[in-house]
Amino acid sequence: GNGDAAVSKLVPTAEMTLGPFFPREFAQDANDLAGNASNAIEISGRVTDSDTGKPLRMALATLTPAQRSASAVERTARTRADGVYELRDVPPGDYTLTFSRSRYVTAPWRREGGTGNATRLDVRAGADMTRMDAALIRAAAIAGRLTDELGDPLENAWVVAARRGFDEQGPTFVTAAVGVTNDIGGYRISH
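RE: above sequence
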């Protein structure tokens, strides 16, 4: 009867659908998710092996907002067999993008020819966020066993991997990684 007509016209608000277990600040921004759907951007690209150029499947692309909110949360996507990933419905904002995969060094996305820290992405409506590609470097490890002059294992010995570098006094060695031997003298340093 008449009660059914009133119920069918009721449109739930974000606060009603979130329920009592969610903070109110999520409810305040919840309608923004639907309201900004036309402003949402897709970020995509391809992840490859830096040595071979072959696509890396199952690599993880992680998009991290500079400031988190109900609509700006960390997003992830895995690459397909062709190395392509897609992050859809990304709201406008400032983000960093990193790539990781087992047996590879985690790397931030950088502008062409960039080095150092991740390049901040200014994600805006209408921006071309395709071809956000990355080439990952295969990780490496140094492993071995240390013994004393009698062949007994050296336990808790520091093992330092160093590379050539420069400082204000000229050529020097710079510590690249450090490990400690175990009870049988074994160590493994990975990067």
